[in-house]
Design goal:
The protein is of the alpha/beta class. The protein folds into three domains: 205 residues, FAD/NAD(P)-binding domain, CATH 3.50.50.60; 112 residues, 3-Layer(bba) Sandwich (FAD/NAD(P)-binding domain); 111 residues, Enolase-like, domain 1 (2-Layer Sandwich), CATH 3.30.390.30. Helices cover 33% and strands 26% of the residues. The chain has 14 helices and 22 strands. The strands form five sheets. Strands 1, 2, 3, 4, 5, 6 and 17 form a seven-stranded mixed sheet that branches. α6 links the parallel β9 and β10. The longest helix has 25 residues. The radius of gyration is 24 Å and the shape is globular. The termini are far apart. 44% of the residues are buried.
């Protein structure tokens, strides 16, 4: 008899949530983790530590530049970077201990070591010089993703860093060159820019935040430039000379042409992430991958081998922790014979800069491409009472609705706390709500969220405060 009903390989947000839900449904569950701590990239070297540094650096910036205009006189703040890193580590430790507690509470066995799938029903775990075989009825692959490498540029995590190294620099670089204008690069760039680095971002495309709504991205770029960011768009870094005291990056136009050189103290390579399948034995076990190295699954998260499932960054879809969590829950429910489901049309995305950028549903570009007739309502935070009195008026809300049915198809926000505000749009869309439904819902005054109501009113060309 199999020792377990389910073995989950990987304890990031997708893996540990899948394990907890399976245990709630009465399964005997084990998780396999190759690192010394649970929580995967997100808790240890990703989402969580970056949010700690974003918050701390924002407070530093506030104290230096915003307190005086509010009538708060304090001496110029001094940066104690080791203490700030300690603040970050306390957050990591707290979250990791939280996951360990959840494993104990739900009677989930934690097996430390590197997991390899021998066949359906059998996982081999190697660690500390020994190997053990674990028998199970079902296997879930939740191994997540790894940093994407840039050809010819070697990451040493000291001067040429990935997001991991950028979270642990021992001093503020005078100049930071970021390769890639995606979410991670802009968040980490914000941290070091606030702490004193001169930040330049090189992006292959002719815009920042690929995949986000174009109008939002353009305004966001202007806001970041006002903060001190420099952008080189339509450009690529083809090499980095590490021989001198300063790094020298070679930057070429994306379309080809004359290369320019640029000095930097630190280069951060942030060109995306790739599925992590190393050493899992997928080929030998007969688990099929797609042409981008992701594990192929059907709509029930089943791989090409019966009894083996996959979720999260290792499969297709946005590489987001909350998408992995939803898939983990749905997958556990399906294994238990229930109806698990993920609505991929309503997965919010957030950039945790200041101001934040958040988005759910379709962008204008996607609707145009699909030939969907839509109406748009916009409302700027300059016309929002709470934002005015707090002097945080950057940004706007945009609501996109179906021209015929008025059903909300997408909502995009740039502004303070945009990441918290997006969820009322997500709930509305989950219930198939219309712009009028949103417009007629009473919002507390004075709040920033009133801007969402006003943008919904603007869909019907009847915004009150604009």
């Amino acid at each position: 008899m199999a020792a377990y009903d389910l073995v989950v390989i990987g304890t990031g947000p997708g893996g540990y949530v899948c394990a907890v839900r399976a245990a709630q449904l009465g399964m005997k569950v084990a998780v396999v983790e190759k690192n010394a701590t649970l929580g995967g990239t997100c808790l240890n070297v990703g989402c969580m530590p970056s949010k700690a540094l974003l918050h701390a650096s924002e407070m530093f910036e506030e104290a230096a530049h915003s307190f005086a205009k509010m009538g708060i006189t304090v001496p110029a703040p001094k940066l104690d970077l080791p203490s700030m890193m300690d603040f970050k580590q306390q957050g990591i430790d707290g979250n990791v201990k939280g996951v360990e507690f959840l494993m104990r509470k739900n009677k989930i066995d934690v097996i430390y070591g590197t997991g390899k799938i021998v066949s359906a029903g059998k996982v081999e775990v190697s660690g500390d010089g020994k190997t053990q075989a674990v028998e199970t009825k079902n296997i879930v692959i939740a191994t997540g993703s790894d940093i994407a490498q840039l050809k010819g540029i070697e990451i040493d995590e000291r001067r040429i860093v990935s997001s991991t190294g950028a979270l642990s620099l021992d001093k503020v670089p005078a100049s930071l060159l970021i390769v890639g204008a995606g979410v991670i690069g802009l968040e980490l760039g914000s941290v070091w820019q606030r702490l004193g680095a001169k930040v330049t971002v090189v992006e292959f495309l002719d815009r920042i935040l690929p995949g986000m709504d174009g109008e939002i991205a353009r305004q966001f770029q202007r806001i970041l430039e006002k903060q001190g960011f420099a952008f080189k768009l339509g450009a690529k870094v083809t090499g980095v000379d590490t021989t001198g005291k300063k790094l020298v990056a070679l930057i070429e136009p994306a379309a080809g042409g004359q290369a320019q050189s640029m000095e930097a103290d630190v280069v951060l390579v942030c060109i995306g992430r790739v599925p992590y399948t190393n050493g899992l034995g997928l080929k030998e076990a007969g688990v099929a991958l797609d042409n981008r190295g992701r594990v192929q699954i059907d709509r029930h998260f089943s791989t090409s081998v019966k009894g083996i499932y996959a979720i999260g960054d290792v499969v297709a879809g946005p590489m987001l922790a909350h998408k992995a969590e939803d898939e983990g829950v749905a997958c556990a429910e399906i294994i238990a014979g229930r109806a698990g489901h993920v609505n991929y049309d309503v997965i919010p995305g957030v950039v945790y800069t200041t101001p934040e950028v958040s988005s759910v549903g379709k962008t204008e570009e996607e609707l145009k491409q699909a030939g969907v007739a839509y109406t748009s309502g916009k409302f700027p935070f300059t016309a929002n009472g709470r934002s005015k009195v707090n002097q945080t008026t950057d940004g706007f809300v945009k609501v996109l609705a179906d021209a015929k049915t008025d059903r909300v198809l997408g909502v995009h926000i740039i502004g303070i706390e945009a990441g918290e505000m997006i969820h009322e749009a997500a709930v509305l869309m989950e219930f198939g709500g219309s712009a009028e439904d949103l417009a007629r819902t009473c919002h507390a005054h004075p709040t920033r969220s009133e801007a969402i109501k006003e943008a919904a009113l603007a869909v019907g060309k009847r915004a009150i405060h604009m």
